[in-house]
Design a protein that fits this description.
The protein is mainly β. The protein has strands at residues 11-12, 17-18, 23-24, 29-30, 35-36, 41-42, 47-48, 53-54, 59-60, 65-66, 71-72, 76-78, 83-84, 89-90, 109-111, 116-117, 122-123, 128-129, 134-135, 140-141, 149-152, 157-161, 182-184, 191-193. Strands 1-4-7-10-13-16-19-21-22 form a nine-stranded mixed beta sheet, with no helix packed on it. A six-stranded parallel beta sheet has the order 3-6-9-12-15-18, with no helix packed on it. The relative contact order is 0.09.
């Protein structure tokens, strides 16, 4: 970390590196061997597990949980309340080659509010993950994901729907924990709650 720089109300482990300038919100915890690169913005109350790399210029919302061994590259935006499981992968180019520089071809990846990405899942750049979607462990996402969709497999396919509380929905589209009811949207973009929660 830059000599003498303090972030008020932020926990940064002594083994972590934080390059300046960057923004880190109140209550955020950055653990062992992390590296936050310059230009990155991290919201309040986030947790970055061991060996997480952010940036440069990545954007992370509030209350995001990033488990061990995840890299959040430039062009990746994680909205509020996103969960990234251990060793999940974000790519930044579609066709990488070691001998060809493609830094001007990075594609943006947007992960909408409340989405969950399982351990070892891969999110191919240029995709958008809808709010509160759930990506199963080991899945490879190659196309945009609708809101509340449950995705699994290689390549990932929708195998069901999930509630905001993280439960798989049955045919009645009612959350077994909260009783919240959902309905399909007309535009094929996923589900929406019948009553805004």
């Amino acid at each position: 970390m830059a000599e003498g720089v303090q972030f008020e109300g932020v926990t940064i482990h002594e083994s972590a590196y934080v390059d300046l300038p960057c923004e880190i919100g109140l209550g955020t915890k950055i653990w062992h061997f992390c590296h936050v690169l310059a230009g990155s913005k991290i919201g309040p109350d986030c947790i970055l597990g061991q060996n997480v790399v952010v940036g440069p210029d990545a954007v992370i919302g509030a209350r995001v949980r990033i488990q061990n061994n995840v890299s959040v590259y430039k062009g990746v935006m994680l909205e509020d309340d996103v969960f990234c499981g251990p060793s999940c992968v974000f790519t930044n180019v579609v066709n990488p080659r070691s001998e060809i520089s493609r830094k001007d071809e990075f594609r943006a990846t947007v992960v909408r509010r409340g989405a969950t990405i399982g351990a070892n899942a891969t999110i191919v750049c240029g995709t958008e993950l809808g709010e509160y979607c759930f990506i199963a462990a080991g899945a490879v996402v190659t196309k945009p994901v609708p809101a509340y969709a449950l995705m699994a497999g290689v390549p990932a396919k929708r195998i069901g729907w999930m509630s905001r509380a993280g439960h798989r929905l049955g045919p009645d589209l009612t959350c077994p924990e909260t009783g919240a009811r959902y309905c399909l949207t007309n535009d094929e973009n996923g589900l929406r709650p019948e009553v805004d929660q």
